Amino acid sequence: MSTARAPFAPWDRRELPGVFGVEESARRIGNYRWTEMRLFEALGGWVATIPELDVKMVLGRHCYHHAWHAELWTKRLPELREMNVDRMTVPAGPEFEAFMAAVTEPEAPELTIEKLVGVYRVLIPRMIAAYTFHLNGTSTITDAPTIRSLKFALQDEHEDWRDGEMLLQSLLDTPENVERAARRQSDVERLVTVAGGITGPGSIGVQPVPEEATV
Amino acid sequence: MKRHLPESELARDERFRRNKIEDQIFDPRNVALADRDLGPAQMSVDRPAVAERSRSLMHGIFVGEIQALEGAGRTCFDFDETEAPFALKLDMARQCWDESRHVEISCKLAEHMGSDIGEYGESTFLYAAACNPDPVMRLCGVNRALEGLAIDVFSSMKAFGESTQDPVLTFCEDWMLADEVTHVKMGSDWLRRLTEHDLDRRERALDFQRTVDKVFSLGGFRGESEENPIQITRRFRELAGFSNEECDELAQIAEQAAADARQMVALAHASQS
Description:
Chain A has 215 residues and is mostly helical. Helices cover 67% and strands 0% of the residues of chain A. Chain A has helices spanning 22-47, 53-76, 85-88, 94-103, 112-137, 144-171, 175-195, 211-214. In chain A, helix 1 (22-47) runs antiparallel to helix 5 (112-137). Chain A is elongated. In chain A, 43% of the residues are buried. Chain B has a single domain, classed as Ferritin, core subunit, four-helix bundle (Ferritin, Up-down Bundle). Chain B is 67% helix and 3% strand. Chain B has 10 helices and 4 strands; from the N terminus they run E-H-H-H-H-E-H-H-H-H-E-E-H-H. Chain B has helices at residues 21-25, 29-35, 50-78, 86-112, 125-128, 135-163, 167-194, 199-216, 234-239, 244-272; strands at residues 18-19, 122-123, 222-223, 230-231. In chain B, the strands form 2 sheets. A two-stranded parallel ribbon of chain B has the order 1-2. Chain B has a two-stranded parallel sheet with strand order 3-4. Chain A binds chain B through residues 37, 40-53, 56-61, 63-64, 66-68, 70-71, 74, 86, 104-107, 109, and chain B through 1-2, 5, 9-13, 66, 69-70, 72-78, 81, 86, 89-90, 92-94, 96-97, 99-101, 103-104, 107, 117, 127.
């Protein structure tokens, strides 16, 4: 009896085409690594500055998630012809660097809302968006190792976003605090919009042009 | 956010009360307490006030875990990659997660034992070991001295759980003990790697660890005799990279700390009479 079968089973619908070549995939991954590193360092540093015990413990857990994502990208970059991982570990541009500086700036113990809003209402949604765009756009056959890492990272990002959002909702107990959160979100959202997202303009394929950027 | 956060700036909610370790050690009531002869100091079911002592110790573990979490977190932030390589910071981030779980565990265990957050004071001398601006010194202070103390404490608490037939306490202490052995091993490995070509720096770091170990022996709290409530756990320390000689040296340091404390009590006696 013949054992010759079609190379792809009928249910395997993976295709060769993808929107990213090797260089573009590596560039994006370098931006991811830079962002994950700045984020895990800041979360680790914040733990000692946050008086709310539940928030302190959650940030301790999330600190490791982001460090581990940085490790995933550390391992992937040399597989994309980029042997010097540090050379590719850069922000998408000076505007994105300024955005991350603003996100990680709050220090005082009374600024827990500002810390959480910057990370969980602006930065992590942007990371989910950039990772999802990469996941959906890259070749499911040639770039499968990146897809696997993106799926691991996205699972954490979704769960961490939910943790952070629920902590925030529990802290927004007065109209003044709601106002604070909205103001903070608007301030940092404006910066990331100018930066174009985690990997710069085109982070999610389209690039809205903010009015201030066109002036 | 500034680098290197002093212990005075650790953020806590209003339930926590900060104590100074010096106030505890030089408390004049210690003289009268030292005069009592209650037999072996190790925690056991027939020891007077053992329930109170174990609750107090569990609260001490709880606040110690918070400080260990904060110390590991600060190491992720305080150093750039020229001072601390990414792999080290990745280990510290992992330690953050582990310490977060330990805070959760000890919080639930304290409740299980009938205690509550803030029932006892908190002294922040454990975090002080994490304030050293040299990452190698900090590693020795946190991962080898502080986490080493945690090995001894968890091992003693596990034995106490077994002696009181408390399966919840025994189970949890055993899990935390496994994590602490990993953390001490991380410290031992990184100390060797970072000082491979700088043996002077390694010696300075080990000197710093001896100083911290003496402080953490708390004048007889830890040691290898019946006088010491917390026993040095050689088996787990060896798993974590301590040599037999290092365990011997630690036992001597602990003995010296106990002798110093006895001398202070004698001086206090003399000044009162």
